[in-house]
Amino acid sequence: MPPPRRAVILLSGGLDSATLLAIARRDGYESFALTFRYGQRHGHETDAAGRLAEQFGVSEHWVSEIDTRLLRGSALTGQTDVPQDRTLEQIESGIPTTYVPARNTVFLAFALAWAETLGAADIFIGVNAVDYSGYPDCRPRFIDAFQSLIAVATKAGVEGSGAPTIRAPLLDLTKAQIIELGVGLGVDYSLTHSCYAPNEAGAACGRCDACLLRRKGFDQAGIADPTTYA
């Protein structure tokens, strides 16, 4: 029997990336998880990534440090207040202050390098339809453009010997659909963390964009939200 295909999973510790791990397991991949510390306000999400990597038994979980000075200019990495209590209409219009400059471009570049090193067939990223309107690096055009880059920027791509493929299986799903899928695949969402502005104990604020979208997703899915809110 041939060895399983390898995949690099971008694992933030949030709801979407937890579902990615479950999908990769379902599809028979050997998973290698990649998490980043890049100057976030807190480490709760990174801690969640560690819990998820352990639960899913990934072959390796790498936590990469990025110089915090490179990704400034965001409410997630600077002193700007995280927006709270916005309506869904406000969340869905414009690019929010929580946008981190070129974050997914940087993350995918690291993932691509590791995938080539490992001989991994695929790179999983958890972008989805809910993020289209806000974050430019969560849109289909971005994924397509980066896939084109892989074809000309890697040894495997130039030689035609199996360059990694970006997998974005959540791209066309709502948060409710993602949750339903994950629950069906055995994801324990109590291990995840989504909040942009938790308290010191890690309890979610319940008021930032991430919390509001998470709550809406569980409500629409008709599934109890296991999140601890402040």
What topology does this entry show?
Blueprint: E1 6-10, H1 15-26, E2 30-37, H2 44-56, E3 60-65, H3 88-91, H4 103-118, E4 122-124, H5 140-153, H6 155-159, E5 165-167, H7 175-184, H8 209-221
Parallel strand pairs: 1-2, 1-4, 2-3, 4-5
Helix pairs in contact: 1-2, 1-7, 7-8
Task: Provide tags for this entry.
about 230 residues, alpha/beta, Rossmann fold, five-stranded parallel beta sheet, 5 strands
Question: Please, could you describe this protein's structure?
Answer:
The structure is a single chain. The protein has 230 residues and is of the alpha/beta class. It has a single domain, classed as 3-Layer(aba) Sandwich (Rossmann fold). It has 8 helices and 5 strands, in the order E-H-E-H-E-H-H-E-H-H-E-H-H. A 5-stranded parallel sheet has the order 3-2-1-4-5, with helices on both faces. Helix 1 links the parallel strand 1 and strand 2. Helix 1 packs parallel to helix 2 and helix 1 crosses helix 7. The longest helix has 16 residues. It is globular, with a radius of gyration of 17 Å. The mean pLDDT is 88.
- The helix content, as a percent range, equals 25-40%
The structure class reads alpha/beta
> What is the C-alpha radius of gyration, as a whole number of Å?
17 Å
Give the rounded overall mean pLDDT: 88
Question: Strand portion, in percent?
Answer: 5-15%
Q: Give the CA-based shape.
A: globular
Distance between the termini: 50 Å
User: Could you name the CATH class?
Assistant: Alpha Beta
Strand order of the largest sheet: 3-2-1-4-5
CATH architecture: 3-Layer(aba) Sandwich
Largest sheet: 5 strands, parallel
CATH fold naming: Rossmann fold
Tell me the number of strands. 5
SSE series: EHEHEHHEHHEHH
- For CATH, the homologous superfamily is named as HUPs
Q: Which ranges are low-confidence, i.e. pLDDT below 50, for 5 or more consecutive residues?
A: none
